[in-house]
């Protein structure tokens, strides 16, 4: 991290952003924490301009040790965040979930995150993760190169729908398409599990409008803002301006996500990019804090009836 970040200059500006909105802090539903050797591999991938980035240069702004990264989110005033972790092959999800239990224990402001993969035993380890207190799941259709409508996943989706546990899912075809990315396979999953609380990562980029269609059709589908509207993304996958009124109307189901720490710009830029949409302070308050606080019951019982466990700001 460069010195301006370390000396707290950026943190001051981030705090000013949410204070001016009258918020108690931010909730960021899309931050990456994972076992160190997996994280190093992911970073090497970004550094090497791999297919994950579509061959685009991707300097990682917050390359630091785990405790330093979590401390920085706290300095920003992020009340709650996630540990988006995901397997790229079978036999890995259970191990990641075990790591995530430990991370959640030592990081009380992290919403305990778990993951899954279409493989024998998935229903069992998803059930175990839920019993261990998982509050959110992450699925990565592009990196995992699997069909989310795979029969093997059906009981796991059913279980998560029943439990009301949100699943942040990278299913859009950006920055690079995968064999099963795009709205089609997800539409199949939702047709079977209409109550599943899918949070479409990155606003579904570049298929923004198709994923807005799904959110309008299914009341439990949400969208996270991760990397959307930033200068970086607008150059590669611009959000169609004609769809802004639809995004305004879905203001109670859009959630702040950032992709911290592997972002090619400062954290503040994501917030300013949202502000720059001109959708107003009410929309920003909902997106940057209130929607996720409600979904995860940070200030009272959530709709799944779980007690409030979120830390204070
Ligand atoms: Zn991500």
Distinct compounds present: zinc ion
Rough shape? globular
**Element order, helices and strands?**
HHEHHEHEEHEHHEHEHEHHEHH
CATH class: Alpha Beta
Oligomer: single chain
CATH A-level architecture: Alpha-Beta Barrel
Number of spatially distinct domains: 1
Helix content: 40-55%
What strand line-up does the widest sheet have?
Answer: 4-5-6-7-8-9
Strand content: 5-15%
Distance between the termini: 24 Å
Secondary-structure-based class equals alpha/beta
| Main β-sheet description | 6 strands, parallel
Taking all residues together, what is the mean pLDDT? 93
Q: Spans of 5+ residues with little confidence (pLDDT < 50)?
A: 303-313
The helix tally amounts to: 14
How many strands in all?
Answer: 9
Cα radius of gyration in angstroms: 18 Å
Q: Name the CATH homologous superfamily.
A: Metal-dependent hydrolases
CATH topology: TIM Barrel
Provide structural commentary:
It is a single chain. The protein is of the alpha/beta class and 313 residues long. It has a single domain (3-295), classed as Metal-dependent hydrolases (TIM Barrel), CATH 3.20.20. Helices cover 42% and strands 9% of the residues. It contains 14 helices and nine strands. It has helices at 3-6, 9-20, 36-47, 66-76, 93-106, 122-131, 141-144, 154-163, 183-192, 208-217, 231-236, 244-249, 267-275, 281-295; strands spanning 26-27, 78-82, 110-111, 113-115, 136-140, 167-170, 198-200, 222-224, 254-255. It has a six-stranded parallel β-sheet. Helix 6 (122-131) runs parallel beside helix 8. The two termini are 24 Å apart. Zinc ion is lined by residues 30, 32, 84, 226, 259. Residues 30, 32, 84, 226, 259 line the site of zinc ion.
